[in-house]
Every structure is written in structure tokens, then in C-alpha cells.
Amino acid sequence: RKPPVKVTSRWTFRCPGCPTTLSSNSSHFEERHQCINFFSQVYGYTPLLYTQYRVDSVLFKTRIAHDKTKCFKYI
């Protein structure tokens, strides 16, 4: 089995300025159900599992001066 699929960060779900929520839409649950079933068919199991495991690169949020050489070309 592969690790869970990361959908997005937790803090990006909040929308205090939104006039309505997805759950208030009557068709949202059915569309969500169809989407989860599609993922299950593609993967052969439900890849959207809850996990608290997180791995960041060593240079995550590390500011490196422009005149310094980076360890990796595309970071």
C-alpha cells in the first residue's frame, strides 16, 4: 500500500469570508461520495487516509543568501 495522498494543508480549509459552506449545498455530499468512490476505484483502496506524519526538507523555510551556493539546484 502506498502512503496517503496529501490533499492540502489544514489551514487552507478555513474561509471566514465565504458566504456559504460546501456542506450547506444539498448536492455536495453526493458529489463528494462519487469523488471518493472514484479514488477508491483508481487506487483499489481508499488513499485518503488520516495521518499526522509529515516530512519536510532540511531546507524547509530556511533563508539562504543569494550569494551562497545551494546544496540542490532547484530548491
From TrEMBL:
GO CC list: endoplasmic reticulum membrane
SUPFAM superfamilies for this protein: Nucleotide-diphospho-sugar transferases
Any one GO biological process: carbohydrate derivative metabolic process
Glycosyl transferase domain sequence ranges: 1-60
Matching InterPro entries: GT64_dom, Nucleotide-diphossugar_trans, Oxidative_Scav/Glycosyltrans
Record's keyword terms, sorted: Disulfide bond, Transferase
Main location: endoplasmic reticulum
Segments traversing the membrane: none
Bilayer topology annotation: Single-pass type II membrane protein
Location in or out of the cell: Endoplasmic reticulum membrane
GO function terms (MF aspect): glycosyltransferase activity
Family to which this protein belongs: Belongs to the glycosyltransferase 47 family.
Protein name according to UniProt: Glycosyl transferase 64 domain-containing protein
Organism field: Arion vulgaris
Gene this protein is translated from: ORF50641
